[in-house]
Amino acid sequence: MSTPHPIRRANHAKYRTTVGTALRGIVPALRSLPRLTLRMPGTSFSGPLPALTDTQRGLAGELSRDVHELAGPLLGRNQFHVPQLRKCEEFLASEFRAAGLQVARHPYTSEGVEVANFHAEVRGSSRPDEIVVFGAHYDSVELKNGPCPAANDNGSGVATVLALARRFAKRTPARTIRFILWANEEPPFFYTKNMGSRVDADRSHALNENIVAVMTPETLGHYTDEPNTQNYPIPGGGLVGLPTTGDFVAFVGLDNAGPLVKQCVGAFRNAVKFPSVGAAVPGIIPLVGASDHWSYWRYGVPSLMITDTAPFRYRWYHTPEDTPDKMDFERFARVVEGVEAVVRGVAGDPPTR
Predict the structure, then answer these.
(1) Residue 75: its pLDDT value, please?
(2) What is the DSSP letter of 125?
(3) Residue 338 CA to its chain's centroid (Å)
(4) Does residue 335 contact residue 164 with C-beta atoms inside 8 Å?
(5) Alpha-carbon span 220 to 159, nearest angstrom
(6) How far apart are CA 255 and CA 57, in angstroms?
(7) Per residue in 224-263, pLDDT tens?
(8) Confidence at residue 242, expressed as pLDDT on a 0 to 100 scale
(9) Mean pLDDT value across the chain
(10) Contact (CB, 8 A) for 127 and 348
(11) Which of 139, 245, 304, 339 reaches 20 to 30 Å from 276, CA-CA?
């Protein structure tokens, strides 16, 4: 394991995401309090899951391979462990290239360390200037006593981006799909100028790019049939009909993403038989903006995260026990297959016959 970066060793507390920083992140959400969308198209699947298909089984193996790489040989993939960060960068770029995509590395400086976001685009055929962003953060949280394996948070998101990039590389959607892997989502950089997606969103805004939708897979690989395993940011979710068993995937958008959330949930339910919920809610509700979609929402872009709800279900969140064995790769594969249909719908890419 590499020696911790001096920032972490000597001044870790100095660079933690402070209460003041967090408040600055959510105060703009006050403007959106009246905007709430809970009614979704279709019906969430319930009952025993159908037998896994050969395609899903192959996808499960693919996702498992990438997550094990990120949580194993690439343990410590953040700016506090620069050699590991560079190895991770090489892995991400090589996987995009192996998919047949060109990779753009966008470096920037964070507390004296060079970090980078990675872009790989599938250019749109008829509406190329309309850009759909599908991205996840690849950094791991730095715990008090060292790095987190970060298998589910957010090795699962990275594996999802790579899987979809491979599947879309030879397709011709109407809109451009920009696959992105971001640095520095985790504390101490969340809601700060050093957050990778914030740097990217600021860049797109400065370039006047037409980002029409943002979707980010965030902590997406843990599912359970155990009762009373699902919690919510506001107590009493079960009282208003939300599931109390953590067996579903959630599409969670910030206020103005209501139509996007509905479109995504409808496409997902049409594509796969798997439990799902969706909501577009005010950003002032705790943690609904706690991922990279927040960075684009600041500019009014409809944005959502696709998640297993992270700390509201996953008790190993931000602990040394966030390891691949806590994940259900077969159910994860079903979800990713559905998300592929979601991205096709948003990008205007009809399914193959």
Answers:
(1) 97
(2) S
(3) 15
(4) no
(5) 10
(6) 36
(7) 999 999 998 876 554 457 899 999 999 999 878 999 999 9
(8) 83
(9) 88
(10) yes
(11) 139
Quote the CA–CA distance of 205 and 321 in Å, as a whole number: 38
Nearest-angstrom CA–CA distance, 103 and 117:
10
C-alpha to C-alpha distances, 189 to 7, 62, 266, 290, 294, nearest whole angstrom: 12, 30, 34, 12, 13
Category of 308 on φ-ψ map: left (φ > 0), alpha (ψ -120 to 50) or beta: alpha
- H/E run at residue 127: strand 127-137
Planar angle of CA 115, 208, 287, nearest 5 degrees:
55
- The residues pairing with 37 across neighbouring beta strands, listed in sequence order, are 280
Degrees to nearest 5, angle at CA 75 with 72 and 80: 175
**Model pTM score:** 0.89
Q: Which residues pair with 8 in a beta bridge?
A: none
Instruction: Find tokens 């902590």 and name the residue.
Output: 219
Q: Which residue has the tokens 């969706």?
A: 278
Side-chain half-sphere CA neighbours of 170 within 13 A: 6
Angle at 26 between CA 29 and CA 294, to 5 degrees: 85
State pLDDT tens for residues 259-280: 999 999 999 999 999 999 998 8
The pLDDT assigned to 21 comes to 46
pLDDT in tens, 70-104: 999 999 999 999 999 999 999 999 999 999 999 99
Residue pair 182/197 in contact (Cβ under 8 Å)? The answer is yes
Question: 331: which 2 tokens?
Answer: 């159910």
Q: Which helix (H) or strand (E) holds 8?
A: helix 6-11
Cα–Cα distance for residue pair 105/115, rounded to 1 Å: 10
Structure tokens that stand for 272 in this block: 């796969």
CB 291 within 8 A of CB 285: no
Q: What residue type is 309 in one-letter code?
A: T
The average pLDDT across 302-307 equals: 94
Query: What integer is the mean pLDDT of 136-156?
Result: 96
Whether the CA torsion 208, 172, 308, 80 is positive or negative: it is: negative
The residue whose two tokens read 């950094």 is 139
Output phi, psi for 312, to 5 deg: -80, -5
pLDDT, one tens digit per residue, over 194-230 is 999 999 999 999 999 999 999 999 999 999 999 999 9
